[in-house]
């Protein structure tokens, strides 16, 4: 297999400005170069306001850069229209946020199925099997019919992780996924990311302010004032 086929994501000179009305253009990311490979398990750290969430939203194709190129699974995204970006995002990327954004009116199982229903419509038997298998993998097989408000914070975040993985994404992005959880539950949720990374090979990039969690990642990316100031392997 060639080097190139291991690459999930490549950023070349990625820039992002926010326009707060002329002439108030503020550049928040100043030209980021970065490659993420299959199997990477990386933490994105940096002071508040350094641009971590902005960068994660660009990586997840939730927002568009104002300069540079972002190539996802070998496909340059700068010339893509919204439909192309949405399709690529849906098939290649899973998201976990600090607040899980589960749909309260849906069962845990239906929440996990949601990304597949958006992509394919009514779930088939294979989709149902996959969602049930993921709920079991995050330890919630018994809670398939429970509504989110019947689950603890840690259980709800585990449903969100199962939902993020149901499309079998090449890249899992997580913004402070354990920021809302107590230390023990945070450790358990973090272990799930690690397990899926090892067992399924999906690259994981997570934003965390917790130095204990970032230290257990394989790689640490540090953003300061919109620039990537360090990219180091932890072991
Ligand atoms: N929609 C927006 N419009 C204008 N400026 C924004 C917008 N979103 C973010 N910014 C600015 O961009 C900068 C980076 O914000 P960002 O949320 O990416 O930082 P962060 O590193 O994730 O911070 P934190 O750790 O506090 O979440 C900040 O100065 C912020 O005020």
From TrEMBL:
<dbReference type="InterPro" id="IPR015854">
    <property type="entry name" value="ABC_transpr_LolD-like"/>
</dbReference>
<dbReference type="InterPro" id="IPR017871">
    <property type="entry name" value="ABC_transporter-like_CS"/>
</dbReference>
<dbReference type="GO" id="GO:0022857">
    <property type="term" value="F:transmembrane transporter activity"/>
</dbReference>
<keyword id="KW-0449">Lipoprotein</keyword>
<dbReference type="Pfam" id="PF00005">
    <property type="entry name" value="ABC_tran"/>
</dbReference>
<dbReference type="InterPro" id="IPR003439">
    <property type="entry name" value="ABC_transporter-like_ATP-bd"/>
</dbReference>
<dbReference type="GO" id="GO:0005524">
    <property type="term" value="F:ATP binding"/>
</dbReference>
<keyword id="KW-0813">Transport</keyword>
<dbReference type="InterPro" id="IPR027417">
    <property type="entry name" value="P-loop_NTPase"/>
</dbReference>
<dbReference type="GO" id="GO:1902495">
    <property type="term" value="C:transmembrane transporter complex"/>
</dbReference>
<dbReference type="GO" id="GO:0089705">
    <property type="term" value="P:protein localization to outer membrane"/>
</dbReference>
<dbReference type="InterPro" id="IPR003593">
    <property type="entry name" value="AAA+_ATPase"/>
</dbReference>
<dbReference type="GO" id="GO:0016887">
    <property type="term" value="F:ATP hydrolysis activity"/>
</dbReference>
<keyword id="KW-0547">Nucleotide-binding</keyword>
<dbReference type="GO" id="GO:0005886">
    <property type="term" value="C:plasma membrane"/>
</dbReference>
<protein>
    <submittedName>
        <fullName>Lipoprotein-releasing system ATP-binding protein</fullName>
    </submittedName>
</protein>
<comment type="similarity">
    <text>Belongs to the ABC transporter superfamily. Macrolide exporter (TC 3.A.1.122) family.</text>
</comment>
<feature type="domain" description="ABC transporter">
    <location>
        <begin position="9"/>
        <end position="235"/>
    </location>
</feature>
<dbReference type="InterPro" id="IPR017911">
    <property type="entry name" value="MacB-like_ATP-bd"/>
</dbReference>
<keyword id="KW-0067">ATP-binding</keyword>
<dbReference type="GO" id="GO:0044874">
    <property type="term" value="P:lipoprotein localization to outer membrane"/>
</dbReference>
């Amino acid at each position: 297999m060639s080097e190139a086929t291991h690459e999930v994501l490549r950023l070349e000179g990625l820039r992002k400005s926010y326009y707060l009305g002329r002439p108030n253009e503020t550049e928040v990311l100043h030209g980021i170069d970065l490659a993420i490979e299959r199997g990477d398990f990386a933490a994105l750290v940096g002071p508040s306001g350094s641009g971590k969430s902005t960068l994660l939203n660009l990586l997840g194709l939730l927002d568009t850069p104002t300069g540079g190129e972002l190539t996802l699974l070998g496909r340059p995204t700068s010339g893509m229209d919204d439909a192309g970006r949405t399709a690529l995002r849906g098939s290649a990327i899973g998201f976990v946020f600090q607040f899980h954004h589960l749909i309260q009116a849906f069962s845990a199982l239906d929440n996990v199925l949601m990304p597949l229903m958006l992509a394919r419509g009514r779930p088939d038997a294979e989709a149902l099997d996959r969602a049930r298998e993921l709920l079991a993998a995050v330890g919630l097989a018994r809670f398939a019919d429970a509504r989110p408000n019947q689950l603890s914070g840690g259980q709800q975040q585990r449903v969100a992780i199962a939902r993020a993985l149901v499309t079998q994404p090449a890249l899992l992005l997580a913004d402070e996924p354990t920021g809302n959880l107590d230390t023990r539950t945070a450790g358990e949720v973090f272990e799930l990311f690690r397990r899926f990374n090892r067992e399924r090979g999906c690259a994981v990039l997570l934003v965390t302010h917790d130095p204990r969690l970032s230290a257990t990642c394989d790689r640490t990316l540090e953003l300061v004032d919109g620039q990537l100031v360090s990219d180091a392997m932890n072991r």
